[in-house]
Amino acid sequence: MARLIEKKLSRRRFLGLSTCALAGVAVGSQVKVLRALAKTGEIGEVTTLPGKDVFTSCGMCVNKCGVIARVRDGVIHKLDPNPHFAAKSRAMLCARGNAGVKVVYDPDRLKYPLIRVGARGEGQWRRASWEEALDEVAKQMNAVAEKYTRAGVMFASTEGTFQEHFFMQLAECFGSPNTVRHPTLCLSSNIQGFGATFGTNPTPDVLGADYIIMSGANRSEALITPDSIDMLKGDGGHRKLVYLDPRFTKTAAKADEWYPIRPGTDMAFILAMIHVIVKEELYAKNFVETMTVGFDRLVPHIEPYTPEWAAAECDIPAADIRRIAREFAAAAPKAVYYQGRRSSFFANDTQMRRAMAILNAVVGNWDVEGGMLPNRSIALNKHDYLAPWYDDVPGRLDEGAVTYLSEKDGSWPIFRDRVLAGKPYPVKGMLAYKQNVLASVPNRAKSLKMMEQMDFICTIDITMSDTAWYSDVVLPEATYLERLDPPEVLGGIVPVVAFRQPAIEPMFESKPCLWIMQELAKRLGEEIAETFDFTMEEHIEHMVQANPKILEDLRTKGVYLEAEQPVYGATYGQPLKTKSGKVEIYSEKYAENGLDPLPVYTPPEAVPAGKYRLLVGRHAYFTHGTTANNPYLHDIMPENTLWLNPREADRLGLTNGRLVRVRSAVGEETLKLEVTEKIRPDSVYLAHGFGVLSKGLTNVYGKGGCDAALIEEKTCPISGNVAMHETFVEVFPA
Amino acid sequence: MKNKRLAIVLDTRRCIDCKACTVACKAENRVPLGRNNYRNWVDEEALRGAYPNLGQSFTPSQCQHCANPPCAHVCPTHATEVNPDGIVHVVDKKCIGCKYCQTACPYNARYYNEEIGAVDKCTFCAHRVYEGRLPACVETCPTKVRVFGDINDPNSEVSRLLAKYPSRVLKPAQGTKPHLFYLI
Known about the structure:
Mean pLDDT of chain A: 92
Order of helices and strands of chain B: EHEEEEHEEHEEHHEHEE
Number of strands of chain A: 28
Largest sheet of chain A: 7 strands, mixed
Number of strands of chain B: 12
Radius of gyration of chain A: 27 Å
Oligomer: heterodimer
């Protein structure tokens, strides 16, 4: 039995270092805790400042899960999941979300503006005042505009902060059409292929589905809420999951069936499924008749795509393909071929998505429980401004490069090629907001060349990313836990509105994006400054003007939603957003643009002898190239390894754990070898986010290899998306 | 807390080895940085089968809050104590850092915390539990592998699960009577 000992508690001990019942006292429950303490051990005079719990949304990845920041004594003690956020994040928080506290209290944080003094990439900086740094950025932007027109300044950014639109606004008001965003490194082909079929990129109702087929979407590691969670719904996970992946991932470990499909042959598998379903008349006849166009053309089109043919392409037995097709059709409409959110791996990705969409369409899973649901949204007032008009500014640099180019997003690989060529015109200034170009765009050497030819580069970020490391001016942004961010609609089956409010004041000299944009705008001229003449509070008020309850709920619950449950069937009886108003199995639009109106299979390039196909993939511990340096996450996985099948390792005489060199046509990286059965013998894999160039990332610098340095950037000609799996590498002992 | 027996029931069929529990615990309990400092973790079990027929399980583990805790029996200073509700904890002021308990624990659930100069381990987040909140790992788990509660209460979720499904404990032959129950 514990004896009561009178003792004094230091604040640090009180905040959770003790192993018996101490720490984290919420206001009002102190008495209860003290009583409990008296029961369990020693107790002394406890004094503490009142704590506060702050509703906000996570900023560690694309999901924006609901978070409650527990602030004690002015310090964010812990980030807990927000139970009110059940519709989207299912009241959970992943490893990255929990590691968010270390984003704020990270010794590697950017603390004040920096101006480069040595050569680019040397890492010689001097501390500058905001005044000086902002003056310099504005001066350089104007100098580039003066010399090369306003289109000579490019704006690279990525989503996530809820403040990216201010950066985009600056680009527009400054007068540059050249904004380059993440979608062409991500899912633009997905949006294109499904959009061409359904008029939108729908969301699979994973919670309602009984049968899920997944290829190339590793949902147990590339976490997407709520899909990753719903996939394992019920005791022990109650649904059937068929998973195709050249790697045995954690999704494979949870799947009912795993097939190590030959990379790049997903379309063959899907076409063979359609073949079986159409030939055996297992499709949803009524739906096909009333809601689709072009089915009659699909019938002869799929004639040659038999399971036997696909078996040879995919390395999946014909009998299994046939059985899966039948099971899928039998489970329909509560059956989805899951497209989710994933990057694109081959140049034919858009057409592969078309095949996926068509398969979903023929089993009639459109807009029903357990099927493919159109995304819903919640209306917010749009932030309007009148951008100044400039004469003599050319159009986008990558204009006309692909069939469907997003005006706002561009196509990263093509854009970069044109910058390097200086054609149709030079781009000599670069502003990067949050996007880590050197880690996320394939073929790093090319990105470095692109940056080398810039007269001026400024990066806004929270840590010294590789891109910041090669910049001229680096500006520190306040982290997501130190900012007031405008409401953002997270669309989906059950849409929610999220926002952020600061848990603590911004540390050091970091500032929110809006402030940085406003200060730059002031320096760039009155006309631009006028469009930024508002405070964040006014901006937020304006957005929720039509419905003040949004803000009220955000403040009291951290989330606003209009319905807790999905809505099914709202599109029935309404025309879809396609040309015909129906689901387009055969795409007239594609035919008019000289594209295949029905997906035609072309096999991937065969792996040359002595080489391996390089695969990319995600981890549940990291978000792309931004979190590998986080101390908590670094503890879990300090470096990446090259996966190689034992059969091949034996052939090469390489043993587990030794250093190897991996060489592609565009780069070479050295990292440790992991000999594992979890990968096809013709492929190798390494995790993303390692092999960094920046010495400002102290935990991860010098650890592992960088996939972006190895990948050659083939591009999808329809959407402009990069193809991440069209690179072959050789492996040598280091 | 009288007449309670706290426990965690784990449905590892849902575990995706995402490490949310591990990081949540480190943050909640100020576990020092470093790969060898942990109060809880997830083990990747050995691959089953051979390519292309593979299987793998993931097993979260931590202090098992044993009813017969060898760590407490061997401690020369009686630093390891057991609460009436079954929570096993270390009184760090009494701990002299001899690490005998670390050796005695069959679950490798204890580590030496340099910052406090004492052996440290999972406490079921007693400080949260006694406020009526859930342990950090249980609350944060994405796929809800973990369920926490009182097995002496027949109406609790843990009791319901244990009644409904067969379960196992880790290393039963050690006779430690662990209170983490893994559903089969």
